[in-house]
Design goal:
It is a single chain. This protein is an alpha+beta fold. The chain folds into three domains: about 110 residues, OB fold (Dihydrolipoamide Acetyltransferase, E2P); about 90 residues, OB fold (Dihydrolipoamide Acetyltransferase, E2P), CATH 2.40.50; about 280 residues, Endonuclease/exonuclease/phosphatase (Deoxyribonuclease I, Chain A, 4-Layer Sandwich), CATH 3.60.10. The protein has eight helices and 30 strands. Strands 7, 8, 9, 11, 12, 13 and 14 form a seven-stranded mixed beta sheet that branches. The protein has a six-stranded mixed beta sheet with strand order 17-18-16-15-30-29, covered by helices on one side. The chain has a six-stranded mixed beta sheet with strand order 19-22-23-24-28-25. β1 and β2 form a beta hairpin. α6 runs parallel beside α7. The chain is elongated and about 90 Å long.
Length: about 575
């Protein structure tokens, strides 16, 4: 209890009446007192005043009877100074404000009065957000800045490069949340690494975490539980590698996750890994191709800087196949391109070229945009109507690679059977400039898939019986508008035939989703005597980003999972256009 004399002296010193924390927080996303001077009081539940946060969290238990208002708030003191301790009852005078979505009181150490110490903390709220995304945001907003706990959680999103881990309550029985879950994905609780403790070791999907206790923070567009006590991690069994792929024909798509060499390219905004980082990434990627994919005859790869990096990859001793590759330098400002690896023992390249489009979009995107989607500008670099006057800008930063190849069984020097395929390797515009309110990047991806659909029709016009594969990183979902464009053109997405529980190639903030796709045309599906067996090889997305530093395992060589399609001969007299695992 606060001594009456201490309270009386503190109250006499106040310049204005005390406003309860819950009233400062309000029932909406922003404080109704923004920019105003406020006085409030409460008990310190989290002390970060000598750390980079330069402040502390204050809570007034049972502040009001309104479930829509939070009883906690962050107090920013502007400098690293040991002002309070957990359990202190304090009075605060400062300015209420929103700091990138976090309601806080901005003050100085002089604006904080410690009235008493050793006070009991309020009971932590048991986190139980709803699945509906909009309701979930309201749920977290009403608990922003409060002491919170989760006794038993299951990891649905691995520890990422920011140190965030994404969990759900174990008692829900949920092991994974998908982007198209009918109930929604709002039940995910992010656990940050900005508190006094963190989840250690870093967690993978399926792990169990016990004893999560902390304060509910908000930063960079995300509510997070910042830990005030050390939790316990109960690892799930590690997933086993798939059996070796011994088939004469298989093909795959693999995102190489920013494979840059160690030399600076002054013409691009390339990254510069150290020599050790570069070799480690090369080894992990080679292990992925050998151990995870079984060294397919053809691999479409994305996010590689140049032919130097490609040559270093195919030269790795972990690989048995002496891969050759097709690559052409593209206009991506970071210098990442796509390429096609192929086994020259099984593949003969008949022709290959990249294809660039021209668009009149003014979106600030593409190789000729200013990257400002709110005030977009695009330089005129190409001619859309053939009048020799530039009236458009280049459509692709990573132009699609079109290859016409001949496949040999068993080997091209063995005189066996051959077949011809057309492959289109793609890497479409990412969603990096999108916001929660606006998909700024969608129009460009739509035009990019329209270009691909026209390219497919061009192939069929020259050869109506052509067998076509379009594969790569599409940066969009199965049910998205860009993928619908290709479906309308007659291409079939093989990911639709992967069992739902395995149908993901990427995990974003705990949500499993499919960004990498393999599409084929009916002529390939109807090839007699064989079936297509698609699968996602889950080596990467489920695992923490820190595993990128372990060269001895293939896991987390990339942030995307590769997709593998095996072509298997069917028994004589059996005709199935598609066989699904």
């Amino acid at each position: 209890m606060i001594a009456f004399s201490a309270w009386f002296l503190a109250s006499r010193a106040r310049a204005s009446p005390t406003i309860p924390i819950c009233q400062i927080q309000g029932s909406g996303e922003t404080t109704p007192y923004a920019g105003q001077s406020v006085h409030t009081q409460g008990v310190v539940i989290a002390d970060f005043d000598t750390q980079s946060e330069r402040g502390f969290y204050l809570q007034e238990e049972n502040c009001d009877a309104n479930a829509a208002t939070s009883d906690g708030i962050f107090v920013y003191i502007g400098q690293q100074s040991d002002v309070v301790s957990v359990g202190d009852w304090v009075e605060v005078e400062g300015t209420a404000q929103e700091f990138f979505g976090l309601t806080e009181i901005s003050t100085t150490p002089a604006g904080v009065t410690v009235v008493s110490s050793g006070n009991p903390l309020p009971a932590p709220v048991n986190l139980n957000p709803p699945f509906d995304e909009a309701q979930s945001q309201n749920y977290f907003e009403a608990r922003e800045g409060m002491y919170a706990q989760l006794a038993d959680a299951r990891v649905v999103g691995p520890t990422d490069g920011n140190g965030d881990t994404f969990v759900v309550r174990s008692d829900w029985g949920v092991t994974r949340l998908y982007r198209d879950d009918p109930a929604g994905t709002g039940a995910i609780i992010p656990v940050g690494s900005g508190g006094l403790f963190a989840i250690t070791p870093h967690a993978k999907v399926g792990d169990q975490v016990l004893g999560l206790l902390g304060v509910l923070d908000y930063s960079f567009g995300l509510f997070r539980l910042q830990l005030l006590a050390a939790p316990s991690l109960v690892p799930a069994p590690a997933a086993s590698l798939p059996p070796p792929n011994t088939l004469p024909l298989s093909f795959a798509t693999l995102n190489l996750h920013n494979l840059f060499d160690t030399l600076d390219d002054p013409a691009t905004e390339d990254s510069l890994p150290s020599a050790g980082e570069y070799q480690r990434q090369l080894e992990k990627l080679a292990r992925t191709i050998h151990d995870g994919l079984g060294e397919p005859a053809l691999i479409a790869v994305q996010e590689v800087e140049n032919d130097t990096a490609l040559q270093a990859l195919v030269n790795r001793p972990e690989l048995d196949v002496a891969y050759a590759f097709l690559w052409e330098n593209g206009p991506d400002r970071r210098g990442i391109d796509l390429a096609l690896l192929y086994d020259p023992e099984r593949v003969v390249v008949l022709s290959a070229e990249t294809r660039q489009g021209c668009t009149t979009l003014i979106d600030g995107l593409g190789p000729d945009g200013n990257l400002d989607v709110e005030n977009p500008q695009n330089a005129l670099t190409c001619d859309t109507d053939g009048d020799n006057v530039n009236d458009g800008n280049r459509l692709f930063s990573r132009p699609p690679l079109l290859a016409h190849v001949q496949l040999c069984d068993p080997a091209c020097g063995g005189g066996g059977s051959t077949r011809q395929l057309w492959l289109v390797a793609v890497h479409l515009k990412s969603k990096s400039q999108d916001t929660d309110e606006t998909e700024y990047t969608l129009p460009r991806r739509l035009e990019q898939t329209q270009f691909l659909a026209a390219l497919y029709q061009e192939i069929l016009a020259a050869d109506p019986d052509a067998q076509v594969i379009v594969l790569g990183d599409f940066n969009d979902y199965l049910a998205s508008q860009p993928l619908a464009v290709l479906a309308d053109a007659g291409l079939v997405n093989l990911l639709l035939f992967v069992p739902r529980e395995e149908r993901y190639t990427f995990i974003y903030r705990g949500v499993s989703q499919t960004l990498d796709h393999v599409l084929v045309n009916p002529a390939l599906l109807a090839a007699p005597g064989e079936g297509l067996f698609p699968s996602v090889i889950h080596l990467n997305a489920d695992y923490p980003a820190s595993w990128e530093n372990d060269a001895s395992i293939p896991n987390r060589a990339s942030d995307h999972d590769p997709v593998l399609v095996e072509v298997r001969a069917l028994p004589y007299g059996v005709w199935l256009p598609l066989v699904v695992k």
